[in-house]
Hints:
The chain is an alpha+beta fold. It has helices spanning 42-45, 49-58; strands at 6-9, 16-19, 30-32, 39-41. The strands form two sheets. A two-stranded antiparallel sheet has the order 1-2. A two-stranded antiparallel ribbon has the order 3-4. The model has no long low-confidence stretch (mean pLDDT 95). Residues 1-58 form the DUF7836 domain. InterPro entries: DUF7836.
Amino acid sequence: MVETYVRLLCPECNKEWELGPDELPGPKRNYSCPTCHATRRVAEFMRTERDLETLKQLR
């Protein structure tokens, strides 16, 4: 079994990291960067459209 993850990028501090879709709320829910604590919708942290689509399919 292949583990799925999504890539995130903070629009404020440019921190990049990866998480499993089950570790995130839905794409329209708020989420905070673990580094700078900027809060935005989860969808705004997705690095690419493909990451957003992966999250939508698995959440």
